Amino acid sequence: MSHHIVAVKNLRHVYPDGTEALRDVSFRIHHGESVAIIGANGAGKSTLLLHLNGYLAPTSGEIQIGDFPLNKGTLPQIRRTVGMVFQDPDDQLFMPTVYDDVAFGPLNLGLSGGDLDRCVIEALERVGARHLVEKAPYHLSGGEKRRVAVATVLSMSPDILVLDEPTNGLDPYSRRQLIALLKEFRHTRIFTSHDLDMVLDLCERTIVLKDGEVRADGPTLEIFQDRELLEECRLEKPLSLQGCPVCGTRR
Amino acid sequence: MASIDAALLDFQRLDRLAAGTSALHRLDPRAKVLVVLVFLVSVISFGRYQVSALVPFFVFPAALIGLADLPAGYLARKVALLCPFALVVGVFNPLLDTDIQLYLGPVAISGGWLSFASILVRTLLTVSAALILLATTGFPAICRALEQLGMPKVFAVQLLFLYRYLFVLAEEGGRAARARELRSFGTKGQGVSSYSSLIATLLLKTWLRAERIHMAMLARGFTGAFQIRQNYRFGRAELLYLCGWSALFILLRLTNPAELLGSLVTGLFS
């Protein structure tokens, strides 16, 4: 695949209970872009992400990942292309040891023996978790769990990385580490987060969702300067763009 | 809820023991599982009044604890934890079965007391064997071994998930119980009814989590079958281990060395 694009056109999703989570969402993310999807609770971020690897099917609208439109036939290929890191690493790490967990995807792709070992170790080294290889997931700290969760996806060498609230619940040091790690990646990256400082660090482009619609889509800095827009969407400027509480009150 | 947390931590220690590197740890789990099975069958198949014939079987847990360098005191505490169950099972035997079976010098021992002692000894033997198996092999490896020995894959997967999420579920349950406790201000709160809704919530949470896990599995190309890596080989050491112990157990089952020794000693003196 030459272009790792993600194109969403007039996406609408209604849950079985009648809740209209997405009304009309359209955007196009290009190869190598790093994009944040932000919005208030219930704006439709998680629903949108679940569409990107075909876990939820659109009520109407189209999704295209790379060269393929998303449908039943292309699902296996698309799931390989889109690596999804879930919000709660306890959901992502379900195997008895870290090795088994990182090997789960590659095994399903048909790797075995030395190739498998190499692939697992490489993915763990990438996230600085080589030493955890034989540990059980429930013996890991929050930061370690998160890094291993990223490794479980990296081992499948995806072209597109999707991360749901990656810095949620991490201590400042682990958060920094994770951000530095994510910065190194050259994949097409899509994040959702309430950690707007992370968004500022990692994403050149931001899409703001409001009530299931795209309210704004543009360069991150521009969006974070628009106070009215942020307030309307129940957001606020990242702390690093706000004035210093000691030496000034610029807001 | 501190007790649940403590119990969990204690349980995780068993798990860490399984990461040891002794010769016993390195054996193919299948050999270890099979030996324990033969051991269990031998111990359980004794008659209800047998006590002396069971005693030599303690050589198995004792030898394994020595070989694998396991903390005996810790394992003994774990075994002791399960003993009350055996006591409950056997406690009425002395009252119900008062036929005299045996004279220890001038003391007459009834069948009830004998069967009670037999139940206790068997519990000690079987529980310690199971715990040692867990501490030298680890739960996931046991599941894999059982699967390779012919247990349906579905059960193996179920057991693995049960083990993996036991910790998560216990933590979630602990948190919910703590929240309830803190808001009932030292009284009984809403009583039993609040527990029923608490358990219902826990069930629903488990359900949702299962869905999310399934999602995570699908996202990584799961197609319904667990691919499992193999890194054990059933070699000569395993064969020796299996045959050696099995032969000993069968020998101990068919003869009664304690009685033989006894009659030998009394024969010498008479």
TrEMBL record, chain A:
SUPFAM superfamilies: P-loop containing nucleoside triphosphate hydrolases. The keyword Transferase does not apply. Gene3D superfamilies: P-loop containing nucleotide triphosphate hydrolases. SMART domains: AAA (SM00382). Keywords: ATP-binding, Cell membrane, Membrane, Nucleotide-binding, Translocase, Transport. It is found in: Cell membrane. It comes from the Bacteria. GO terms for cellular component: ATP-binding cassette (ABC) transporter complex. InterPro entries: AAA+_ATPase, ABC_transporter-like_ATP-bd, ABC_transporter-like_CS, ABC_transpr_CbiO/EcfA_su, Co_trans_ATP-bd, ECF_ABC_transporter_ATP-bd, P-loop_NTPase. One of its GO terms (biological process) is cobalt ion transport. Its main location: membrane. GO terms for molecular function: ATP binding; ATP hydrolysis activity; ATPase-coupled transmembrane transporter activity. It is a peripheral membrane protein. Part of an ABC transporter complex. Responsible for energy coupling to the transport system. Belongs to the ABC transporter superfamily. PANTHER family: ENERGY-COUPLING FACTOR TRANSPORTER ATP-BINDING PROTEIN ECFA1, HEAVY METAL TRANSPORTER. This is ABC transporter ATP-binding protein. It comes from Geomonas silvestris.
Automatic annotation (TrEMBL), chain B:
Its main location: membrane. One of its GO terms (cellular component) is ATP-binding cassette (ABC) transporter complex. Pfam families: CbiQ (PF02361). It is found in: Cell membrane. It comes from the Bacteria. InterPro entries: ABC/ECF_trnsptr_transmembrane, ECF_CbiQ, ECF_transporter_component. Keywords: Cell membrane, Membrane, Transmembrane, Transmembrane helix. It is a multi-pass membrane protein. The chain crosses the membrane at residues 31-47, 53-72, 79-96, 116-142, 239-255. The keyword NAD does not apply. One of its GO terms (biological process) is cobalt ion transport. This is Cobalt ECF transporter T component CbiQ. It comes from Geomonas silvestris.
